[in-house]
Amino acid sequence: MTSRPTSACLASALLAAMTFGPAHAQSPAEGLVSERSISADAALELALSDDGANPHTLENSERKAYTAFSTRAASGEVGKRPAANLVSFLQLDRTTGGEGGLPIFAGKEIVGAVGISGAPGGEKDAACAQAGIERIARKLGNG
User: Fold this and answer.
1) What angle is formed at CA 51 by the lines to CA 46 and CA 57, rounded to 5 degrees?
2) What is the pTM of this model?
3) How many domains does the chain have?
4) What is the span of the domain harbouring residue 29?
5) Which pLDDT score, from 0 to 100, does residue 136 have?
6) Please, are residues 13 and 122 in contact by the beta-carbon 8 Å criterion?
7) What is the pLDDT of residues 91-114, one digit of tens each?
8) What's the CA gap between 37 and 19, in Å, rounded?
9) Is residue 133 part of a domain?
């Protein structure tokens, strides 16, 4: 058995930079909307992957990102909601309450989400997601 890195951002972390139905803004022409989302270049800069990641981590990272985008909240925070409010939500196909999914904002506008899976613990997945977002903050006008 080989030893693998234990750094929060390298420990078998698989990151998926996701955009799901970008944010809409009303345009001057009634009936039209403009869409903003994270660019492909920013998504690639944000995305990290370790060769040692297990196959299921890709799906898990996608679920975390989808949950963060659709709720505009960290996936781990969604998982802490009262059971009565959570049961039906978690029955949806692409959702999870596991830590590691964060929404990506440009100012106050949501433009994407990131999901991390594979580090030894959800708190490490979330820390790695945050590090990725901080890495591209200036490209989003956030720093």
Assistant:
1) 70
2) 0.80
3) 1
4) 14-140
5) 93
6) no
7) 999 999 999 999 999 999 999 999
8) 7
9) yes
